[in-house]
Amino acid sequence: MGQSVSLVGTWMQKTAVSWVVYSLTRSKFMLGVTVFATLFPTALVSLYGGIVADRYNRYKVLLSTQIISLLQAVLLTLAIVFFKQYAVWEIIILSAMLGIINGFDGPARQSLVRELVENKEDLPNALALNSSMVNLSKLIGPAIAGFILERFGDATCFGFNAISFIPVIISLLLMKLPKQELKPKTDKNLKKEFAEAFFYIKNTPVVISVIIFVGVISLLVLPFSTLTPVFAKDIFKGSASTLGIIDGVIGFGAFIGALFLASLKQGRNLSKVLAINTLVFGIGLTLFSQILILPLALLFIAVGAFGMMSVRTISNTIVQIHVPNQFRGRVISIYLMVLTTMMPIGSLLIGAVSHYIGVQTTVLLEGFLALIIAVFYGRYLKKEKLKKEEQSLLQHQPEEVVIQA
With a threshold of 0.85, does the pTM exceed it? Predict the structure, then answer.
């Protein structure tokens, strides 16, 4: 419940940041720079954040990052109130600060999730329910932000985000968790520890394939969200409320997608669901890019967001299920590094490309790329399935048949 309140504030701030930056600069590229400033520092420090999550108490690390995030949100609010004319560069600097905090927060948070679920068979459903909470806040936050931006101004959005950290900090303080088995702090150096994690990933096909998949999608398709302020202001001739509605509908589609994932029965082939839902993502994005009627466009982007939900939730679930505890912090940090490296680079790329060919054509290309990636990933899964079936047949044949073969 505490995290739900905090996430509403986070999405209010995200919507306000996009609107303020585009309103002041009218630059699609600067929208990409803002996303880059938030995510790229996360990529730089997330590897070390994974080691911290494995070596130190994850609960205490998470509590510390939440308190520091509260201070960052307060600074951003004060900057908007007192130095509005320099807001763009202040937002970029403070976004970079938040990115560094998230580099430690992410591995600790993701690693802690598994400790909160007693029955490990419930983990996929628990992660999907957690994603439902995230996307419900993504539905509510932008809608509230659009209203507040028009009625009370951007500083109110940033201020609410600062206050919203208080409930999640209180909820963390109320938690009672089993004692975490910590790694010895001096047994290995950083290079050896990550060599172990990379070796594990390299020799676990299901993990390395999903990490590569997430990297490609994050670079070429997920950055479409960078351009939603341009669709709101220029394509649909709207206001801050229009941006709030678009981002809110994306959140609604993702929320329904998360509920769908949470309802999946145990033992379902998650990789196959990931490939199918990526196809849905591509179809929705392609149709949204070409529609000029707002209600119809919202319908298609909701469909796309339904499919998009799988990219992060299922990929995260696959990693959580297959990685043992002693590697989890480091492997998750590598997973997050791929995600947070590709997303900001993709945002810069999408911002630059859209400047030359237009936002609608850019998002159309992203939709096509999602379809292509889904097809290739599906073919890879089919090959892996055939390979496993052949290995299984060989293992179950009588010894004399194997010798004859």
Answer: no
